[in-house]
Amino acid sequence: MPSRMIVSMLVAVLSPLSVFAQETPWEIYTEEGREAYSQHRYAEAEESYLAALKEAEQFGNEDSRLGTSLDNLAELYYTQDRYTEAEVLYRRALAIKEQALGPEHLDVAKSLMKLAALYRMQGKPADTEPLYQRSLAIWEKTVGPEHPDVANVLLNLGDVYVDQGKYAEAEPLYQRLLAIFEKARGPEHPNVGTILINLGDIYLDQGKYAEAEPLYQRSLAIWEKLGAAAGPPLAMTLENYATLLRLLARHAEAEKLEERAKAIRAIRPPSAGDPPPPPPPAPAAAPN
């Protein structure tokens, strides 16, 4: 028994050293880059990622480490608003993955989403939309149209349609999202509350007030159940619902919701990570 304990102790002490000794330069540079990136030391992260990329170039286009290095460096440039440099790297990573894995691999779908997000940030919907559409087709074919993993690309593509005022295209995507989240996470999950707001906003923007109101009401009930933890999403729902009530000339009800939203935001002002409340939609000609 004592001898076994000694062996265990030696293994515990020596194993980390053995693992570290086996790390390749690419792994070391990549880990250093990720650590620096997570701490916002971007100059150091770039130096490490470039060193990792130099190592990865030796592995050839068939090696996944090259795509990883390109993605890491592209993400760093994206974070720094160096969009032109990021685009070159994202495009190269996409081409490598398409060649090595085939055009319908999930890693290709993920690269398409990264490039689409870059174009969306630059306000290029014509370039963004087809990338999300292609990514969605790959996800649907690979995991199925109702799988929870499809939700992210559905949301992004729906948002791109809304950005362009393509409400007819966005609506069925949000409806699908709602069904996916309700099935996977339950009808009172915060994700459901968020999609209800988005769907309500689409109807509001189109003047479909009768369709919008029950969605806001249901979303409001979800956030209220969470209480103080709801924070900005609750305030946003109150504000958007109040906008609808103003358009319906139900000003007294709207004022109560606006006061509640104001109180919530006073307690917890929006932070950089919170979505800002959208501007009020323009009034439609007449309610349905």
Short description:
It is built from 13 helices and no strands. With 288 residues, the chain is an all-alpha fold.
Determine the number of helices (DSSP H or I, runs of at least 4 residues): 13
* Fraction of helical residues: over 70%
**Gap from first CA to last CA:** 81 Å
- The low-confidence runs, each spanning 5 or more residues with pLDDT under 50, are 1-20, 275-288
Q: What CATH architecture of the domain at 23-101 do you see?
A: Alpha Horseshoe
Mean pLDDT: 87
Features of this protein?
mainly alpha, Serine Threonine Protein Phosphatase 5, Tetratricopeptide repeat
Written account of the structure:
- The protein has 288 residues and is mostly helical.
- It has a domain at 23-101: Tetratricopeptide repeat domain (Serine Threonine Protein Phosphatase 5, Tetratricopeptide repeat).
- It is 76% helix and 0% strand.
- The protein contains 13 helices and no strands.
- It has helices spanning 2-22, 25-38, 42-57, 64-79, 83-101, 106-121, 125-143, 151-163, 167-185, 190-205, 209-226, 232-247, 251-267.
- Helix 6 runs antiparallel to helix 7 (125-143) and helix 10 (190-205) runs antiparallel to helix 11 (209-226).
- It is elongated and about 70 Å long.
- Mean pLDDT is 87; it is low at 1-20 and 275-288.
